[in-house]
Amino acid sequence: MKKAVIFDLDGTLADTIASITHCGNLALSRFGLPSFQEEDYKRFVGDGAAMLIRRALLAAGDGKLSHFDQVYEAYLKIFAEGCMYQVKPYDGIVPLLEKLKHLGVRIAVLSNKPDADSLRVVEELFGKGFFDFVQGQREDVPRKPDPAGVYRIMEHFGLPASDFLYVGDSGVDMRTGKAAGIFTVGVLWGFRDRKELVENRADAVIAGPQELFAYL
């Protein structure tokens, strides 16, 4: 049996798209830029806050990204306060995590969401200390799909790649896990579709949280 599971956060553990959409649109509106729907933000997310804002600005017609510095700064401030807006765990996630802990499997979070916001979301949804390791985007660690964050978790747990599963909802997640030599499991309840997961070489794709146990 695997000894540890690394989870993505947005679109995997937690349905956060309402908060991202709400905060993104507030930041854009401050500078007279158009708003977008949740389905649009599902395409914008995945590569960190800076890339999210770049994609939103390009979609808004700011091809030269002339508003980037202003909108990005506004977004970070707004999101620091609003990152829990309508956020909730996906159905079946809490029972999945509780069973993993009961089995003695260590659990970690690796996200491209800013580190402080990642920690806040995880602690408010699941409780402080529930996860064995939580890491969001930090200046001293390259963001996913660079495997540096995975390596930090492997070192922290003192376990080889063969003892891990990596679980996420996007091509970025699949590339992250593959780069670290870990068995990758793509989930279909998040922000992206099966095609993206398969094209990025997911080792397995699941439709519900309980299906993960087939790969432990």
Topology of this protein?
Layout: E1 4-7, E2 14-15, H1 17-29, H2 38-44, H3 49-59, H4 68-82, E3 88-89, H5 93-102, E4 106-114, H6 115-126, E5 133-137, H7 148-157, E6 164-168, H8 171-179, E7 183-187, H9 194-199, E8 204-206
Parallel strand pairs: 1-4, 1-6, 4-5, 6-7, 7-8
Antiparallel strand pairs: 2-3
Helix pairs in contact: 1-4, 3-4
Sheet having the most strands: 6 strands, parallel
Would you tell me the structural class of the helices and strands?
A: alpha/beta
How large is the count of helical segments? 9
N-to-C CA distance: 5 Å
The unreliable regions are: none
Tell me how many strands there are: 8
What percent strand?
15-25%
Q: Give the CA-based shape.
A: globular
SSE series? EEHHHHEHEHEHEHEHE
Rounded Rg = 17 Å
Lateral strand order in the biggest sheet: 5-4-1-6-7-8
Helix content: 40-55%
Average predicted confidence as pLDDT: 97
Question: Short summary of the structure?
Answer:
The protein has 216 residues and is an alpha/beta fold.
Mind explaining what this structure looks like?
It is built from nine helices and eight strands. It is α/β, with parallel strands linked by helices and 216 residues long. It has a six-stranded parallel sheet, with helices on both faces. Helix 1 packs across helix 4 (68-82).
Feature tags:
216 residues; alpha/beta; two-stranded antiparallel ribbon; 16% strand; globular
